[in-house]
Every structure is written in structure tokens, then in C-alpha cells.
Amino acid sequence: MFYHLLYPLHTQISFLNVFRYITFRTIYCSLTAFLICFLLGPWVIRKLTKMQVGQYIRQQGPESHFDKAGTPTMGGILIVFSVIITTLIWTDLSNYYIWIVLMVAVSYAVIGFIDDYLMQVKKQSKGLSVKSKFAMQTVIAVLAGFLCYISPEFDTHVTIPFFKNIKPDLGVFYIFFAALVIVGTSNAVNLTDGLDGLAIGPVLIASVTYMIFAYVGGHAKIAEYLQITYVKGGGEITVLCGALAGASLGFLWFNTYPAQIFMGDVGSLPLGAILGTVAVITKQEVLLVLVGGLFVIEALSVIFQVGFFKVTNGRRIFKMAPLHHHFELKGWPEPKVIVRFWIIAIALALISMSTLKIR
Ligand code: 57M
User: Are the CB atoms for 240 and 208 separated by under 8 Å?
Assistant: First the structure.
């Protein structure tokens, strides 16, 4: 919006020229998103508490979680609101890719909202069935993949980190590959969201990492210099990553241990889906396995635990899955698990960035 309203006035007021720059808009987009979450947070917490949207805690989980009962959830509404508003304010709205990400964000937030609403407000013990949730996620993700695919400039080659000469072209199958990335990331972030700040911290780290990839990949000269795929129009995604980073930081203020609010599925599902879509658009799809490595580890811990449990008739690899519960049950205090998982996420993000040079 600002880009369209203020930048054209730069011929009269030269200072307004700064609105042209992606870097300037990214910084102020991040700050605006942070402030929205930070300032509205206390009001949202009060409202949700008043509406009794309090978390139900499963009895079979770690005992340390029992006193979290009643913590207001569905705080993801605030995160998604902040990301959408600031994206509308600070990005170039003629950019096709921005609208794809917004479509995914809103749709996944609606799926998460329905699930949370059924469980937290209607107090049904189960929300949406796993099958219907998965079906809805898949339809939206395939649509996003299709919208990328029909964009005339979109490249259907897949970037393989560390190997600049291996770039398989998936052609029309790219649509399904993109859907896999989006649905997988959405569910992996959801699984990770089980300790205070455990999901939002790595979402923040991943959004900053993709902010850098979107910028360099969207800049013809830098992309050529680094020999990475140039994505025409992809630079604008940098500003959107700024919105995600700022909103995550603002939410972390309240979600940090001991949490005053949880994000709910209305937060975890769209956050993962946004990251997946950004990875697809920036042509750093496979790299997300590394950037979001913590989410992958958590998801794999569930897959292995459930698989082993079934095959061995009730034996377990971990004390409990996802992995964060294993460490809690080993006696690590919650903040220790959280901060150590963040440390792993930061290390993985740094390794991911090294792929700009090691290839
Ligand atoms: C959602 N949700 C949290 C909160 C958050 C297949 C199976 C492994 C699935 C998994 C599962 O359902 N995971 C997805 C995880 C829940 O948090 C709510 O859910 C939203 C995210 N969707 O925003 O609204 C609880 O997590 C804690 N929490 C915090 N701080 C936060 O900032 O402390 C969340 C956010 C909250 C709160 O306690 O109530 C969740 O864990 O339910 N299932 C599991 O994770 C279960 N694992 C399990 O059954 N493992 C089995 C194997 C065989 C699958 C095993 O290892 O034996 C555990 N979940 C819980 N207790 N709560 C079981 C024990």
C-alpha cells in the first residue's frame, strides 16, 4: 500500500524514494508486525481468557504440563492478522507471489481456526478429523503449487543444496512436489508446537533465513554472482518474510516460558504453510529440510515412534514423541529443552546459509 501510495510522490518529496527499496520496507514491515503483536497481545490474551478459550491438557502427557490448563490458546489469530496487515501495508501488491502466500496463509488459518473452535470453544474432545484436515490442507497446497506453475516465469527445476549442477526438472509434477513441501511443513510446525516458544522461535529463525534467500534470489545481479536460481519478482517475498519474523518476535514476547498464550492450530498450521510456500517460491525448496531441520527432527521422531510402536506391539524408541517430550521426561527443565532446540535451529540456519557459497 505504502509502495503504491508514497513511492510515486518521490518526484516531489525525494525522501519518499526509500519506499522503493526492499531492504527499507522489510525493516519497517518487521517492526510494524512486531509492534502489532506486542501492543495487541495483552488485549488478545484478556479477550481469549474472557471467552474461556483455555487449553485442555491431555492427562497422558508430562505432569509438568498439567498446570498449563486454561492458558488461553488461538493466539495464532494475532500472528496471522499481523502478517496479513503488514504485508498489505508494506509490499508491492502487484506482485503475484505475494498473493499466493496470502491465499495459503488465510486458508490454513481458517482450517486451524475450525479445528481450534471445535475443540476450545465448542469443547468437543476432538476437532476436525485427521483425514478432513489433511484433505483441506492438500487442496490448498495443490492450488498454490498450480498457481506457481502457471506463472510464465516460474522455474520447475528443483534446487538441490550443495550441488549447483544437479537440478531435476519436475515439469507438471512440480505442483505435487510443492504441495508436499507446504503440507509437510505445516504439519511439522504443528507437531513442534508443544512447549512454550518451541515452535515460534524456529519459525522466526527460518523466516530470517528465507528473508536472506528471497533477497539474493530476487536480485538478478546477486543471484548471478552466487549462481543461484534468479526468481523474477521473488525479491518482494523478502518483505513478507520480514512480516513473519516481526510477528513471530512479537508473539514470542507472550509465548516465552512461562507462556501467557499458545498459538493453537490457527497459528501453527499457517506458519508452517507460509514457510513451505516461501521455500517453493524462492526456489529453495529442499533447503527447507535444513532451515526447518528442527521441525523435520520432531516430525521424524513421531514417525519412528509410531512405526516402532506398531511393529513391536507397544515398544518405544523415545520415552514419548514428539522429541521434546522425551527430554522433558528425562528430567530436563522445560526452558532448557526450548533454548537447546533453538540453538540447534540457529546452527542449522547457519549451515543453510553456507549453501550460498558451498556448491
Ligand atoms: C499438537 N499440541 C500440543 C496448543 C498449541 C501423532 C501424535 C504424536 C500427535 C501429537 C499431536 O497431537 N501434536 C500436535 C501438539 C498442545 O498444544 C496445543 O496445540 C497447539 C498446536 N497445535 O498451540 O494450543 C499442548 O502442548 C503444550 N504447549 C505448551 N506451550 C506452547 O506454547 O506447553 C503448546 C504450546 C498444550 C501444552 O501442554 O496443551 C500437544 O502436545 O498436545 N501428539 C502428541 O504430541 C502426544 N504424543 C503422543 O501421544 N505420543 C505417543 C506416540 C506413540 C504417538 C508416544 O510417544 O507414546 C502428546 N501430547 C500431549 N501429551 N499433550 C502426548 C502427551
Answer: no
Residue partners of 281: CB distance under 8 A and separation at least 6: 97, 100, 101, 148, 214, 231, 234, 237
Please say if the pLDDT value at position 156 is more than 80.
Answer: yes
Q: What is the CA(291)–ligand 1 centre distance, in A? A: 23
Please give the Cα distance from 235 to 146 (Å, whole number): 20
Boundaries of every domain in the chain = 2-354
Q: Ligand 1 centroid vs 325 CA: distance in angstroms?
A: 9
pTM score, whole prediction:
0.96
Closest CA to 262 of 104, 102, 48, 31: 48
The average confidence (pLDDT) of the chain is 95
Task: Tell how far the Cα of 191 is from the centroid of ligand 1, in angstroms.
Answer: 7
Which protein residue has the closest C-alpha to ligand 1 atom 39? 57
Give the model's pLDDT for residue 201: 98
Taking the centre of ligand 1 as the mean of its atom positions, its distance from the CA of residue 193, in whole angstroms, is 7
> For a substitution probing ligand 1, which of 48, 53, 55 has the most ligand atoms within 8 Å of its CB?
55
Bridge partners (DSSP) listed for residue 157: 169
Residue 76's pLDDT is 98
DSSP E strand boundaries for 155-202: none
State which ligand 1 atom lies nearest to the alpha carbon of 73: 24
53 C-alpha vs ligand 1 centroid, how far in Å? 17
**44-65 pLDDT, tens per residue?**
999 999 987 777 777 777 778 8
Note the pLDDT tens digit of each residue in 345-357.
999 999 999 999 8
Strand partners, 163: 160
- Judged against a pLDDT cut of 90, whether residue 70 lies above it is answered with no
